[in-house]
């Protein structure tokens, strides 16, 4: 028993010096190339998602996998090819072809979802440096079609008695497949919608003549592309911009407003509800930029009040057979250049036990619409426009009852309250206070 243990330990120690599979393609002292050689395939997420490439063992496949041996093999030794991130079809028959059958040959033993097992059926003395090849077109099924998902192949070997040979540590595996997003759309951080609606000019124009969001398009063609979603051709791509199109109404039946949203030099077709605009785009190259330009009507007779709004873009690719959508890409937003203050602790609707009031001073010449937004300690959100304005040249009061009525409060609550006035910021001052019963006034400070 003691001698057998020594022999096994000696064999195991010797096997560790026969390094076999090294994905970096380095050589050992004898000059033998030690590689697990397989060019990485990339698979298009879009085609996998829309069904153009079927992920059911019928279409997705591995590239050629080549194992270069680093040890002396004997008849009966076992070689295992393992896969993670995907599955083999367990009822298929697989083959490892050899570079020289006179030196080494192997036969297929079995397959499971994650492992192929082969046995050496013929071997000469000098098997080190010989290659075994799992041919391209071996069908697999990916565990995940999400962008970034990877497929890894590894190889192990052992004697017929179960002793590990061709030990290589961390170099016996390689990523051989990755799921990529074939069509990418991003908005440049330096080119988002960020102009303000000018309250000093009746809220009918931006503070600049126009504003532009720039969308970049990048094509990453998968290496496994026999049935992947192809490069975009003319008429196959359309953009739908979502958000308020009030003030950008060119083309809407009955509208006299000539404000526009132009998408990659194409006028957007504005929906009747003025909540979106769509444009079909021409063919794009492997990389492209598409400008979405908002230009309000500058005519004094036909321009209208612009709405504050956040904007997104949806992209649709449609080649006539399959479609792919990219939804909710943020373009930025338009806000007012009016005055706004946040009051962090505002007790409201406590039936006279605590009474809250705000005062807005407007020294300008433009009345300002007053908008209230808030959230309470329970996480409830509130928003309302008051039925009166911050009148130009006057002090306007917002009472506890005004806030309670605006938010339909049925019980006392504490609010984080934002007051926004659609008048130039320089013209507006705000102050708040509360009384507790008959005690003195306590100021509510803005953040």
Relative helix content: under 10%
Low-confidence stretches: 1-35
Strand content: over 45%
Mean pLDDT: 86
Helix and strand composition category: mainly beta
Q: Gap between N and C termini, in Å?
A: 81 Å
Number of helices: 3
Strand count, sense and closure of the main sheet?
A: 7 strands, mixed
The third-level CATH topology of the largest domain is Immunoglobulin-like
| Number of β-strand runs | 32
Radius of gyration, whole Å: 35 Å
The gross shape turns out to be elongated
Task: Tell me the domain tally.
Answer: 3
CATH class of the largest domain: Mainly Beta
Would you identify the CATH architecture of the largest domain? Sandwich
Task: Give the topology.
Blueprint: H1 2-15, E1 36-37, E2 41-44, H2 45-50, E3 65-68, E4 78-84, E5 86-88, E6 96-98, E7 104-112, E8 115-123, E9 131-134, E10 140-142, E11 150-158, E12 164-165, E13 173-180, E14 183-187, E15 196-197, E16 211-219, E17 237-242, E18 260-263, E19 266-267, E20 269-270, E21 276-281, E22 287-295, E23 309-318, E24 323-336, E25 338-348, E26 354-362, E27 368-376, E28 381-390, E29 394-399, H3 400-407, E30 413-424, E31 428-436, E32 441-444
Parallel strand pairs: 2-13, 15-24
Antiparallel strand pairs: 1-3, 3-9, 4-8, 4-11, 5-10, 6-9, 7-8, 11-12, 11-13, 14-16, 16-22, 17-21, 17-23, 18-19, 18-22, 20-21, 23-24, 25-30, 26-29, 26-31, 27-28, 27-30, 31-32
